[in-house]
């Protein structure tokens, strides 16, 4: 069988127009030339900071040795620590790596030139509309990108001999911040304001309108994204297009160049240039304006969609909340997977796989220590816990950590898979993997909330397991004798009523057995209390060996033990005591202790099923035990 050629793509915020189009450009060209594509997705900015560290678990998924090459869109990672982790990991991959649209990258890069068009945009305002007092509104959040655009704005103003009109400021995305920035810019009486991006332009347009300043009649405004919303404004927003699809295509061709693969394809370009998209906010005439009623309907549709998604996300959260069994949780989650298109707008989902690390529950070392749970060796396995392929539910299975999916799926599945990590805080559970019809990826921002619901569900189940272990341990400490593991006297007495009910239902009179360790004082005095405790533990093990589900056994105190059982004869009760002594004899013969461990015992049958009758039976059993102890003592003399 010929080897599958694969490339890996690392990118964040895949639901964004830019990211999705970059990926689609890579996918379309890669599949055209027979390459499989695995896309590893992060959501580092749109989650609470304390959970963001878990995003680095994306690096646990791919097996670097299986890829011919890799691509990374470093600029989409807005948390520097995560970006550095991914870049450092890729440096250790033994294959070529292409960085998409990153200046000063440690890898060869294909750049999207959306800075030079800023100069063209300024020239358009000055030369085509006769404007001179052109200002720039930068962004303080993404300052490293904003600074480059501001520099090109300044260069354009200088080339146009408009240096004396250079004015710029910056703001975050808030309405208050942009309002304050506008106050500053208005002191320069601007004729136009070039905004860092469309989001800032939207807010600025609202601020201008609230002050009675008309666009473009009083002040022209431009953006820098060409997002859908801006084209529904009246007039449409002028800005710069992002040929992200073409950027993805060129990134793939550049990777092939590094791989020395000869194909019938265009020569790879190191720079893809953006273009101006003319609307009406710059002052251009004749561009179609959206009728107000259509724009109103557009906004209403968006609002209704967001409200619906919010309610469905809450419903999902409530449905998954409190589940503490992973199999039941998967049954509930399966219903939400089947409704992903209906509820989340994720179209054409053809394959869905939820994969968990074999140690996903991650019992902490502290819990293991407190609950006396043995360390389990790390298993080199992944659990395929929930799997859909072409709307058919597949059975659960395990596969090697060296693969991101089972081999039988890889052989018959899609050429393109998208992976997202499952985690909570620093705890990594595993990952989701999806494929889409015709390899056309479809994601919505609301899927981030969907993922967080799954993460929270897994965290709840994991916490429940840890809590249950602790509760079981507390129950043991409350009910069990710490030395032997048998019931303590308090729990023994509490269990007597239910025990008698079961005996009566079986129609079998209960039998009491009293056991006493021989010569415990001698062992303590001569060999120490640690050896005395050891002898008690051995007797406890011997008692455990003969107990059935119809037997209650407790350490009554010191060296004395009480047992209750039913469903056996007197001869069988006598045989139980002999089996305990035989266990001790076998132990004595196989060990080198300087003392022997032996036991004296007696039993009695209760006259009825009352607690008073059991008390009387134990008194008789105690006397019978004492008689045997005297016999043992005489035999040693």
Describe the structure.
The chain has 637 residues and is of the alpha/beta class. It contains 19 helices and 22 strands. The strands form four sheets. Strands 1, 2, 3, 4, 5, 11, 13, 14, 15, 16, 17 and 18 form a twelve-stranded mixed β-sheet that branches. The protein has a four-stranded parallel β-sheet with strand order 7-6-8-9, with helices on both faces. It has a four-stranded antiparallel β-sheet with strand order 20-21-19-22, with helices on both faces. Helix 7 links the parallel strand 8 (192-195) and strand 9 (220-222). Helix 1 packs across helix 8 (244-258) and helix 6 crosses helix 7 (198-210). The radius of gyration is 37 Å and the shape is elongated. The chain starts with 5 loop residues before the first strand and ends with a helix. The mean pLDDT is 88.
What is the gyration radius calculated from CA atoms?
37 Å
What structural category arises from helix and sheet content?
Answer: alpha/beta
Q: Tell me the number of strands.
A: 22
Largest sheet geometry: 12 strands, mixed
Helix content: 40-55%
User: Total number of helical segments?
Assistant: 19
What is the chains' assembly state? single chain
The pLDDT mean sits at: 88
What low-confidence regions span 5 or more consecutive residues with pLDDT below 50?
none
Distance between the termini: 83 Å
How large a portion of the residues is in β-strands, by DSSP E? 15-25%
């Amino acid at each position: 069988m010929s080897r599958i050629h694969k490339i890996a793509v690392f990118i964040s915020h895949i639901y964004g127009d830019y990211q999705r189009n970059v990926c689609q450009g890579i996918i379309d060209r890669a599949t055209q030339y027979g390459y499989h594509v695995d896309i590893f997705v992060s959501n580092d900015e749109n989650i609470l900071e304390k959970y963001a560290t878990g995003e680095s678990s994306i690096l646990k998924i791919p097996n670097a040795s299986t890829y011919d090459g890799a691509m990374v869109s470093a600029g989409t990672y807005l948390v520097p620590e995560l970006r550095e982790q991914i870049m450092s990991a890729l440096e250790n991959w033994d294959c070529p790596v292409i960085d998409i649209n990153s200046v000063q990258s440690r890898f060869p890069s294909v750049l999207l030139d959306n800075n030079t068009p800023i100069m063209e945009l300024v020239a358009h305002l000055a030369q085509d509309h006769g404007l001179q007092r052109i200002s720039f509104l930068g962004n303080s959040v993404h300052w490293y990108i904003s600074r480059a655009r501001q520099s090109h704005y300044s260069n354009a103003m200088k080339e146009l001999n408009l240096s004396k009109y250079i004015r710029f400021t910056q703001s975050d995305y808030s309405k208050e911040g942009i309002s304050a920035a506008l106050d500053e810019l208005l002191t320069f009486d601007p004729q136009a304001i070039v905004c860092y991006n469309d989001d800032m332009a939207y807010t600025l347009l609202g601020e201008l309108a609230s002050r009675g300043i008309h666009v473009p009649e009083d002040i022209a405004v431009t953006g820098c994204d060409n997002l859908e919303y801006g084209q529904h404004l009246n007039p449409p927003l002028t800005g710069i297009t992002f040929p992200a699809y073409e950027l993805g295509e060129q990134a793939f061709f550049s990777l092939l160049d590094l791989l020395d693969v000869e194909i019938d394809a265009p020569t790879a370009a190191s720079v893809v240039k953006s273009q101006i998209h003319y609307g009406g906010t710059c002052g251009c005439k004749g561009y179609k304006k959206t009728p107000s009623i259509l724009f109103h309907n557009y906004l209403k549709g968006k609002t209704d969609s967001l409200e619906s998604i919010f309610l469905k996300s809450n419903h999902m959260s409530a449905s998954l909340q409190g589940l503490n069994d992973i199999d039941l949780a998967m049954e509930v989650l399966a219903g939400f997977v089947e409704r992903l298109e209906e509820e989340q707008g994720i179209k054409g989902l053809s394959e869905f796989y939820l994969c968990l690390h074999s140690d996903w529950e991650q019992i902490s070392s502290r819990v293991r220590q407190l609950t006396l749970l043995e360390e389990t060796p790390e298993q080199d396995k992944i659990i395929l816990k929930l799997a859909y392929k072409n709307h058919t539910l597949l059975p659960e299975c395990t596969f090697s950590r060296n693969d991101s999916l089972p081999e039988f799926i890889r052989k018959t599945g899609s050429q393109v898979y998208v992976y997202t990590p499952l985690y909570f805080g620093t705890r990594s559970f595993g990952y989701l993997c999806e494929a889409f019809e015709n390899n056309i990826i479809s994601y919505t921002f609301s899927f981030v909330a969907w993922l967080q619901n799954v993460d929270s569900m897994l965290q709840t189940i994991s916490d429940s397991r840890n809590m249950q272990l602790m509760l079981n341990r507390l129950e043991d400490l409350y009910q069990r004798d710490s030395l032997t593991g048998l019931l303590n006297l308090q729990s023994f007495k509490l269990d007597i009523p239910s025990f008698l009910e079961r005996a009566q239902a079986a129609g079998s009179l209960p039998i009491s057995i009293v056991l006493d360790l021989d010569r415990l004082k001698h062992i303590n005095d001569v060999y120490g209390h640690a050896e005395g405790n050891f002898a008690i533990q051995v007797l406890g093990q011997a008692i455990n060996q003969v107990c059935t589900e119809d037997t209650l056994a407790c350490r009554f105190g010191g060296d004395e033990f009480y047992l209750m059982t039913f469903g056996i004869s007197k001869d069988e009760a006598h045989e139980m005591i002999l089996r305990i002594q035989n266990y001790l004899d076998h132990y004595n013969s196989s060990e080198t202790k300087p003392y022997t461990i032996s036991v004296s015992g007696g039993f009695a049958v209760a006259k009825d099923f009352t607690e008073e009758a059991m008390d009387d039976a134990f008194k008789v059993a105690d006397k019978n035990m004492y008689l045997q102890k005297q016999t043992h003592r005489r035999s040693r003399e």
